[in-house]
Write a structure and sequence with these properties.
Blueprint: H1 3-12, H2 37-44, H3 50-62, H4 64-74, H5 86-89
Helix pairs in contact: 3-4
Length: 90
């Protein structure tokens, strides 16, 4: 039985078990948290100095995905302080 057919059987049978090897993916921005991680990671890394700002601009010139990748690596976010979407969590 392939992974896809296992997943389809779980949906059809309304089984509460998880399908093996299929990750749970949740969109954080606007769904689980009430903010955008791009902005949070940018402001969390603002204090890192002038070289960081040049590297941020350089990543921004390459596109949104390279900017997000750079900021994710360069910043440290305390996820416990992010505002959660209580409607989604309940």
């Amino acid at each position: 039985m392939t992974e896809l057919s296992t997943f389809q059987n779980l949906i059809v049978n309304n089984d509460r078990q998880t399908a093996p090897g299929i990750p749970l993916v949740v969109d954080l921005d606007g769904s689980l948290i009430q903010t955008d991680l791009l902005y949070e990671s940018f402001f969390a890394s603002v204090k890192d100095g002038l070289e960081h700002h040049w590297l941020t601009l350089k990543a921004f010139r390459r596109g949104k995905a390279p900017l997000k990748a750079y900021l994710a690596e360069a910043s440290t976010i305390d996820y416990a302080l992010l505002p959660s979407a209580t409607k989604f969590l309940s």
